[in-house]
Amino acid sequence: MRRRERRTAGGRGTEQWSDTDLSVPAPPLWMRWLPAIYVVAVLALEPITPVQWPVSFLLIALPVVAAFAYGPATVAVVTVFAVLLEGVLAGTPCCAGRSVGYLWDRHYVATYISTALVGLLGTILAAHRTHRERTLATVRSVAETAQRVLLRPVPHRLGRVCVETLYLSAAAEARIGGDLYEAVPTAHGVRLLIGDVRGKGLIAVETAATMLGAFREAAHDAPDLVGVAHRVETSMSRRATELSGTETAERFVTAVFAEIAEDEKIVRIVNCGHPPPLLIGPDGVTELEPTDPSPPINLGVLIGDHYHAEVQPFRPGEQLLLYTDGVTETRDRDGNFYPLIERIRAWGNLPPRDLLDHLHQDLLAFSGAELRDDTAALAAYRLPDPLPDQDEDEDEDEDEDQDERMRRRSERR
Predict the structure, then answer these.
(1) Among candidate residues 378, 363, 381, the one with its CA nearest the CA of residue 317
(2) How does pLDDT run across 70-109, given as a tens digit for each residue?
(3) What is the band of 350 on the pLDDT scale with cuts at 50, 70, 90?
(4) Could you give the C-alpha distances from 67 to 85, 122, 245, in angstroms and in order?
(5) Per-position b or e across 114-125, b if 16+ CB within 10 A of its CB
(6) DSSP notation for 107-151
(7) Contact present, 220 and 186 (Cβ < 8 Å)
(8) Would you list the DSSP string of 307-330?
(9) CA 332 and chain centroid, separation
């Protein structure tokens, strides 16, 4: 299963999934051409070497060279071709300067047999490699399905808030990890979550699933954001006590809970030991450092579950960026950390989707395409208030053109 992103005219991205895509990635182009290049090199060396130095013996390795990029049937055909070519080079005076008598010389017969044996081994190797690649494709498909269930696509429009998300895996083979995000429309406003589970592997995935499930329920029921944090903490602690092993006490999550009120120009934030969000607006970029940090989730039993919500202005036309430490801890080749605030300030006030796309490409360029940690980010943009006499259709048209106006304003800057 593969996730695709489709762009609309307003710059928004729509995630699409294909249930039938289990194709094995094709080998690199140079690897597919390597057998042909190898044969050309042998043919180029043959005429310029003495007769007593039969370079055609190098063709013994041709089946193994082909086994790295092709399936067993192709390797078997290449093996037959290699044996025939060795015979041609052994008994063709015009090409190798040898008489036909060399064709059945014991040294050449040994070469034919060796090539056939190597071809048999190459065919087995190709069959094993093909099987492993298909298994890996199936495993990646299952991982992507689990990722879709764990981090389900977030609606791009929640009331007067536009939401876009980004998830990057540190390894191409690992489509699922401990970074998490969610956005839920509730009667209390749009409630957001971004978090980072300590550790890696299946334990981190199971912890992230528990965290998201608890948040999706508490976001609707709890009357305030502090109540949401308490409910999630209770669920996580209960789950930890049900598990055995010494790792249960270490299953904590750093997180940011945010609530964008519908009728107030504010955002409420509970920061549980997580990197602070960024507020992006016409006045620049502001880091929303907590004055009273809350403990990470699932550590409340040890250090107290005193969660504190802080209120920040969040006016129409402004944007909130939530992210995990995979962004700020990205390093370049010299070991320097990624300067997130400086980069965001340089880009201007981009629309949410363009902002995250730009962040994605900039992280890859900064790190030399070597991300060492999973990365998640969530951008929430507050749409301008509609005019009193503006009908619903005009309001939707205004929303669709908002990203384009933001992009033009950024270009003018």
Answers:
(1) 381
(2) 999 999 999 999 999 888 887 665 454 455 556 677 777 8
(3) confident
(4) 18, 6, 45
(5) bbeebbeebbeb
(6) HHHHHHHHHHHHHHHHHHHHHHHHHHHHHHHHHHHHHHHHHHHHT
(7) yes
(8) ---EEEE--TT-EEEEE-HHHHT-
(9) 19
Amino acid at site 120? L
What's the pLDDT score for residue 388?
61
Q: Is 186 exposed, middle or buried (0-12, 13-18, 19+ CB in 10 A)?
A: middle
pLDDT in tens, 198-208: 866 677 778 88
Could you identify the residue written with the tokens 């762009």? 7
Query: What residues contact residue 306 under an 8 Å CB cut-off, 6+ apart?
Result: 294, 295
Residue keyed to tokens 């008489």 = 99
Predicted model pTM: 0.67
Listing DSSP states for 366-390 in one string gives: HHTS---S-EEEEEEEEPPPPPTT-
Helix/strand/coil percentages in the chain, nearest 5: 50, 20, 30
Distant-in-sequence, close-in-space partners of 226: CB < 8 Å, separation ≥ 6: 270, 307, 308, 309
Residue 71 in contact with residue 77, Cβ under 8 Å? no
Number of other residues whose CB lies within 10 A of the CB of residue 242: 7
- How many whole angstroms from its chain centre is CA 208? 17
Rounded to the nearest 10°, the torsion over CA 117, 120, 126, 128 is: -110
In the numeric block, which tokens belong to residue 359?
A: 């962040």
Q: Are 385 and 316 in contact (CB under 8 A)?
A: yes
Report the alpha-carbon distance of residue 276 to residue 291 in Å, rounded.
11
At 174, which amino acid appears? Answer: A
Question: What's the token pair of residue 138?
Answer: 């199936």
Long-range pairs for 271-275: beta carbons < 8 A, 24 or more residues apart: 271/310, 272/229, 272/296, 272/297, 272/307, 274/194, 274/195, 274/196, 274/324, 274/325, 275/323, 275/324, 275/325, 275/327, 275/328
Distance of CA 372 to the CA centre of its chain: 12
Q: Are 244 and 234 in contact (CB under 8 A)?
A: no
3-state secondary structure of 40: helix
Handedness of CA 156, 158, 162, 166 (dihedral sign): negative
Question: How far, in Å, CA of 116 to CA of 110, rounded?
Answer: 10
